[in-house]
Predict the 3D structure of the following.
Amino acid sequence: MLIKKTQRQNSQAMRQGSAAGALADRGQGLDRRTFMRQSGLAAGGLAVLNTLSPGSVRKAEAAMAGPLTSGATVRKSICTHCAVGCTVTAEVLNGVWIGQEPSWDSPINRGSHCAKGASVRELVHSDRRLRYPMKLVNGQWTRTSWDTAINEIGDKLLQIREKSGSDSVYWLGSAKMTNEGSYLFRKLGAYWGTNNTDHQARICHSTTVTGVANTWGYGAMTNNLNDMRNAKTLVYIGSNAAEAHPVGMQHMLESKELNKGNFIVFDPRMTRTAAHATEYARIRPGTDIPVLYGMMWHILKNGWEDKEFIRQRVYGFDDLRKEVEKWNPEETERVTGVPGAQMERIAKMFATEKPATLIWCMGQTQHSVGTANVRASCIALLMTGNIGKSGTGANILRGHDNVQGATDVGLDIVTLPFYYGLAEGAWKHWARVWETDFEWFKSRFDDPKMMNTPGIPLTRWFDGVNLPKNDVAQKDNIRAMFVQGHASNSITRIPESMKGLKALELLVIADPHPTTWASLSVKAGRNNDTYVLPVATQFECKGSRVATGRQLQWGEQIVKPIFESKDDLEVMYLTAKKLGFADKMFKNIKIENGVPSAEDILREINRGSWSTGYCGQSPERLKAHMKNQAKFDLVTTRAPKDDPEVGGDYYGLPWPCWGSPEVRHPGTPLLYNTHLGVMDGGGTFRPRFGLEREEKLPDGTTRKVSLLADGSYSKDSEIKDGYPEFTLASLKKLGWDTDLTEAEMAVINKVNPASPDTVSWSTDLSGGIQRVAMKHGCVPYGNGKARMNAWSLPDPIPVHREPIYTPRVELVSKYPTLPDAKQFRLPNIGFSVQKAAVEKGIAKQFPLILSSGRLVEYEGGGEETRTNPWLAELQQDMFIEISTADAADRGIKDGGWVWVTGAENGSKARMKALVTERVGKGVAWMPFHFGGWFEGNDLRGNYPKGTDPIVLGESANTITTYGYDPATGMQEPKVTLCQIVAA
């Protein structure tokens, strides 16, 4: 947060608070000299924290080459915080990490780090890490051994399985794991026999994945940070990149400065990103769809839409137009607060000053209409033709270092790895890859139909515990939680989760830090059957991770796991061994000194991930990219074609990287770009929704409309029009099957001996169908139209619906939430909750809109970063932003203590007030990184001794409330209601 004058004056007094006290107890100072010496950052390294021009990076490059300390080894890994993908260069001497620099060669961070990245060495050296396994014994944390812990946990899991079934155990994984770890965790869930496997993407970008994939094929950022330098107009709606992705922000500012770009920000707060804006529009939280439709209304009125692009590459435009026409300037301003003249000005820039891009993050996704919000953003891009070209696109900024990768590899409740889904064909595909009998997998589930049924979202794990058994559509309620790398305070409705924590029969927490799962579970009343297992940080492991721009990067193991910590992969291996299926699960994966080989796991990923194009990024190719980072162009991210190791590759081989590694596809830096050939990274929209659709006409008759592209195709394609996905049958029809090798045909016949013609580009384990399609200039998945009308979603055309807890009760009758329904095995009663809130006058009792978001100093639930002394010094208190007008009305002083009360459960939280004009009247805002307090009670004593974070505070999610997106189960922490009073 920004430092105010009053805070500077009180800074000395603030240092005497909990953070300084906690450090003083440990004999640590926080002077700058100590920081520079202990952090391992030279003065030159600290200097690059400021924005550098490409010229200054190049100049410094030679000076920084090589180890800085005689005898030291330089190793590279990736920052474990946000998803920008910054390379961390570590100096290691005698097995000790002695120094750190940001990588000057990386085309992503080019010698820069934010505060979090600059201090990651502390994550490994921290003396507040978990040192050894512990368990609760009669309410006391007690040391135990790994063997004892794994045996006791395994025995308890098997007992629960016998009594309540496989679905009664919830496997909650992590976006902090490598691709290999996340994939293995999902595989562990499959071998256990459940789809109750999830991770952080559920609470950050599950709505993005669903909304974007249902529009044009894949649920990911279409371009990348480097390409944003080419944009002329950047529109931020739901992103505070300056704090959430500060190093990525440098690329965006290059667009503004070098291109004299339009920098437009829609946000309820005047954020640090908005401070850079050429145009800032304050909006009411929860009105993203009206904002976007209000912009589109002006585009259509003035004829600024890209008519030819729509004709060739878009389906459902006429359906969309009918909804947009409802959002004239008067209605838009009434609902959103944005004046019509300003909206028209923004619309004109977006539609006519191209290339233009939309940037969003959790401000847009974390709503009960999150999927519809995302779809509206995609539609705006389609309407203006701002997709599939440099400088355009949906630049969706992911939050954790591997949340994109963990999603891709299938750590999810709705799919097996790489978006194959849960249908029988998907299970048979992965059974072939894993060389495990399909019927055996079926036998592992409580009921064969559960094999094809999505699991319970992590946002509602406690409802799976607390609700009556007949409300939970599985054999029994959730009885055990196995949590490996996920914070509990990131999940809304903490008072409800406390009930769930108490009721669990088993709770396992595997993490470098005990997290709020530990402190809250003790507060909830747990005394036994609770374990904390020390897991290594990613700097103590090796493997690949995916940056927000879909680039894969390989991280070396910098040092071996400290204390008694174990690699994520080893923890999963030990668990599988105890549960009795390690021999099957690790059939094709070497175990080296007790740890599964990360390289072998990635090779297994390569063998099965044809649907998403993770098939070409072998360990060897990724390691070559890390070795040769300096060769990749800063803007295009491409290496010279004549380079012997990485020639012609795009940095990180961004997926899809088609074919086997031997095909040497260069990766796809910009999705859906028809201006390039497929072997140069070009592509088309994916026709994954069928080839045609039957439409009803006004006279009652029907017509069939093609869903394939019309006269649009990628450069050098031999098919000059739209076409379906490739199968062996389609290759035969075209006469291209003769291009398949004998070995490829043998594999295809083995995949489906009864009907080899049905084997497709995504199920052919030889890669031959992909190779042949590309040989003829075609994209393996076909060439279709993007959908403005996504008929398979709850709202096929996005519709504005008021938040569950809205202050604008007069709008609910016109814009209600969707009816109650059963979703993801549980009832979603959002309509009933919204109706009751209106009837009870909740908006009068709690008149302030409450939203939440990020600080640059901390990450996620914050336990890791609030344990870091260099970051803890920067932000020592949980706070709530309140407008000057609202503070005056309540007698609240800047820096004073306040009570925040919420609309459910009689919830309350005690924190400091930041009185500021950053938020408008009627709106309050909290950071979501704090934990360790609950309703005014300090829980420091609930952590295992010596593992408590330096900074504690109330969790924002103590106050957040009911609200779930029907398509994904996403929670609604971005808009609820609260009241604030002086403490």
Observations:
- The two ends are 22 Å apart (CA to CA).
- The chain has 38 helices and 34 strands.
- The longest helix spans residues 146-164.
